[in-house]
């Protein structure tokens, strides 16, 4: 049993650094740009196609999109995997433990750090919203009402309707990014499994590009700062890899029984 545990640890440690490089390094570039006075928001013309594409990336880990994403990736990861009793239960237990840990960490951290979102500061600077201290001193329902009032007479060219609604759904604090930590947890989990199974590197690469795109979408839409998505990436990869490692360990243990 010790040899099995140690062997699984060595193998997944090597794969872990591969996943870390694929997912975290591209996100770190955003922080380097910010240090050089690169402003990610407002960068896009919010009423044009690139902004809408960024929003579509965000939706893949939204309230409804995340269910479809998980189902599709689970089917891909488990395709032609040797079947055994309890496999699906263990698989989803490991996955949900990873996502649950990410969710709890994100929720606690937001209340501790209390970092205002970029769009809140942007609107306050334009005189359309109260200062961030006053804004965040209110309960979420009041924040949504103040935000709706501040956005009500802004044209579609300034802030399109879909983004107004999205901002009104995101009135919590900024650090860390819930969407980014979810995407990186998912990517860390499935990338490790795909590498473990030696599936096509194109699948792993595509999954990594998707997760990084979700992170950058949060910058471009004014929801987060570079440090938010970088910290979320590190935490998400950690939770995802730990969940995948637990399933791999169970899978290898079952082979020896």
TrEMBL record:
Phosphatidic acid phosphatase type 2/haloperoxidase domain mapped to chain residues: 91-244
Catalytic activity: di-trans,octa-cis-undecaprenyl diphosphate + H2O = di-trans,octa-cis-undecaprenyl phosphate + phosphate + H(+)
PANTHER family registered for this protein in UniProt: PHOSPHATIDYLGLYCEROPHOSPHATASE B, SPHINGOSINE-1-PHOSPHATE PHOSPHOHYDROLASE
Protein name: undecaprenyl-diphosphate phosphatase
Transmembrane regions: 54-79, 88-109, 173-195, 202-223, 229-250
Superkingdom classification of source: Bacteria
Keywords for the protein's UniProt record, in alphabetical order: Membrane, Transmembrane, Transmembrane helix
Keyword Transmembrane helix on entry: yes
Pfam families noted in UniProt: PAP2
Signal peptide residues on this chain, from the entry's feature table: none
EC number(s) on file: 3.6.1.27
């Amino acid at each position: 049993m010790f040899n099995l545990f140690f062997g699984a640890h060595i193998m997944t440690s090597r794969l872990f650094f591969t996943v870390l490089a694929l997912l975290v390094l591209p996100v770190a570039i955003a922080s380097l740009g910010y240090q050089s006075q690169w402003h990610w928001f407002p960068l896009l013309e919010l009423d044009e196609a690139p902004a809408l594409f960024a929003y579509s990336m965000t939706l893949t880990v939204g309230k409804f999109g995340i269910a479809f994403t998980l189902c599709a990736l689970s089917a891909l990861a488990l395709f032609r995997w040797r079947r055994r009793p309890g496999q699906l239960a263990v698989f989803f237990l490991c996955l949900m433990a990873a996502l649950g840990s990410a969710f709890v960490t994100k929720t606690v951290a937001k209340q501790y750090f209390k970092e205002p979102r970029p769009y809140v500061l942007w609107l306050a600077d334009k005189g359309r919203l109260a200062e961030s201290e006053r804004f965040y001193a209110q309960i979420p329902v009041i924040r949504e009402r103040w935000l709706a009032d501040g956005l009500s007479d802004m044209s579609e060219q300034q802030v399109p309707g879909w983004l107004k609604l999205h901002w009104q759904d995101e009135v919590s604090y900024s650090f860390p990014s819930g969407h980014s930590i979810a995407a990186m947890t998912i990517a860390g989990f499935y990338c490790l499994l795909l590498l473990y199974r030696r599936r096509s590197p194109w699948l792993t690469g595509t999954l990594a590009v998707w997760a990084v795109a979700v992170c950058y979408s949060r910058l471009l839409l004014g929801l987060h700062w570079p440090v938010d998505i970088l910290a979320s990436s590190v935490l998400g990869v950690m939770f995802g890899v730990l969940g995948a490692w637990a399933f791999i360990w169970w899978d290898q243990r079952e082979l020896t029984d």
